[in-house]
Amino acid sequence: MAERRRRNILSIAMTFVYELKSLKNRKRYIGSADLAPEERLKKHNYGSNKFTKRNRPFVLIYKEKYADKTEARKRENFLKSGVGRKYLDGILKNR
Fold it and tell me: Which positions ≥6 away from 8 have C-beta within 8 Å?
């Protein structure tokens, strides 16, 4: 019974892909995490990453949710590409 509950908890775990924007210099950061993007943002603003430490503070400007970590990483890599950045620019321009 405990094993079944553990599998159910694991099956509902989500992975997020997110974009942050630096308030210091308007640079963007695209990442993925098992934590909610709002929680990950707190860690970035605290200085948990070399890039974000130098460019903080950041604000969360975009997020997507995935049930599959592999799909989330593929999406993260796409959004980091030139085509992916243009895609994000188009979405964010319409907000």
Answer: none
Structure tokens of 19?
Answer: 């974009």
Q: What string of pLDDT tens digits covers the 95 residues of the chain?
A: 545 444 445 556 899 999 999 999 999 999 999 999 999 999 999 998 899 999 999 999 999 999 999 999 999 999 999 999 999 999 988 77
Q: How many domains does the chain have?
A: 1
Cα(72)–Cα(91) distance, rounded to whole angstroms?
18
Domain with 8 in it: what CATH number? 3.40.1440
